[in-house]
């Protein structure tokens, strides 16, 4: 019999929901089936992104019988989707079992038949607005776009997108990657568009953002190099955009060498939700489901919070008094997030199409 399992609240039984993987009647059965598979293949999980290094170690410590095979930690959301497509008939180590992608990539992958449904035990605590009702994809964490600033090189940190157009930031500003393949970069362009006109949305916001970045490139303020912790520390990209949790973790890791300031732009606060999903062709479907159960458990959610990510069960866990006070004290003040805009799924889908259609032509890149 084939099922998709969901642990019932307060019970160990898993509900039969009609998926394509092997049966598991209890959590213990799921654990046994996953251990028999002996491997989990993940992709695009840098250890310094959202504390994934510690999260992976936590899973390995809990299930030492399962080898975690890590593919291309620096891949973008588009790369993850392509990895599923390229390995449909491959049961070897190059076929990802699970993906962690930007919100707009979840529905698109479902529509292409690339995902299989699964609902975790804590399903009811995931907001309906960020999950597929059938369980093909669901939100895992979110953050807001921010600027990381090397204070050794940039003495006066910018506070907004508008500030970045000043000539004093020549050859200083970067994005983490190509917006056609990376969700954080695409949403950076989107945020720039909103900074020019807060009433814009979808493709209009994205296209306005492309125009803004083209002007930044023409003024020589935009650096044609991907922003990273190494490039920021070396001064190649002394200002670069990324999710707040990545930049805060980078700040801590650099530990003052150089000093880094993390700034949430005052004129455009864009929140981004990432989602988890299981490949329809996962070679290790039970290990994939067990990984999901771990990520959405209290332990997994607090693991993400330790990396400055807001876990998707944040509100439910806060109401239940499950969030450690010491972790909460390390996050930016709540008022920094008060103007956050969460682009809808339709708006992100339209932005994704506009990026594919217009970025290369406007920016003069391949």
Automatic annotation (TrEMBL):
Entry annotated with the keyword Signal: yes
Segments crossing the lipid bilayer: none
Keyword Signal: yes
Keywords per UniProt: Signal
Domain of life: Bacteria
Residues annotated as signal peptide: 1-21
Cellular component, GO, one term: outer membrane-bounded periplasmic space
Gene Ontology molecular-function annotations: thiamine binding; thiamine pyrophosphate binding
GO biological process: thiamine transport
UniProt name for this protein: ABC transporter substrate-binding protein
């Amino acid at each position: 019999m084939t099922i998709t399992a969901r642990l019932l609240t307060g019970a160990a039984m898993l509900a039969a929901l009609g998926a394509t993987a092997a049966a598991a009647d209890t959590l213990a059965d799921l654990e046994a089936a996953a251990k028999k598979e002996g491997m989990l293949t993940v992709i695009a999980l840098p250890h310094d992104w959202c504390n994934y290094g510690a999260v992976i170690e936590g899973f390995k410590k809990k299930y030492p019988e399962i080898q975690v095979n890590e593919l291309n930690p620096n891949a973008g959301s588009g790369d993850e989707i392509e990895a599923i497509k390229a390995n449909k008939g491959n049961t070897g180590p190059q076929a990802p079992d699970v993906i962690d992608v930007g919100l707009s990539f979840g529905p698109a992958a479902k529509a292409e038949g690339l995902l299989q449904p699964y609902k975790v035990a804590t399903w009811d605590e995931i907001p309906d607005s960020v999950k597929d009702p059938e369980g093909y994809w669901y939100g895992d964490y979110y953050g807001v776009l921010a600027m990381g600033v090397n204070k050794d090189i940039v003495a006066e940190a910018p506070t907004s997108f508008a500030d970045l157009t000043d000539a004093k930031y020549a050859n200083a500003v970067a994005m983490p990657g190509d917006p056609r393949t990376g969700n954080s970069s695409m949403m950076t362009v989107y945020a720039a568009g909103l900074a020019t006109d807060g009433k814009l949305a979808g493709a209009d916001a994205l296209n306005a953002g492309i125009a803004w970045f083209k002007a930044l490139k023409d003024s020589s303020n935009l650096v044609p190099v991907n922003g990273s912790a190494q490039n920021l520390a070396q001064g190649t990209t002394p200002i670069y955009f990324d999710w707040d949790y990545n930049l805060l973790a980078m700040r801590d890791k650099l530990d003052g060498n150089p000093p880094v300031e993390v700034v949430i732009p005052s004129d455009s606060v864009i929140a981004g939700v990432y989602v988890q999903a299981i490949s329809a062709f996962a070679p290790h479907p039970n290990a994939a489901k067990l990984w999901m159960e771990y990520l959405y458990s209290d332990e997994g959610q607090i693991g993400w919070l330790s990396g400055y990510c807001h876990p998707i069960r944040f509100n439910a866990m806060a109401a239940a008094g499950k969030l450690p006070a010491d972790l909460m004290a390390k996050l930016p003040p709540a008022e920094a997030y008060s103007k956050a805009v969460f682009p809808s799924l339709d708006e992100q889908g339209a932005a994704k199409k506009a990026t594919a259609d217009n970025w290369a032509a406007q920016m003069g890149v391949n």
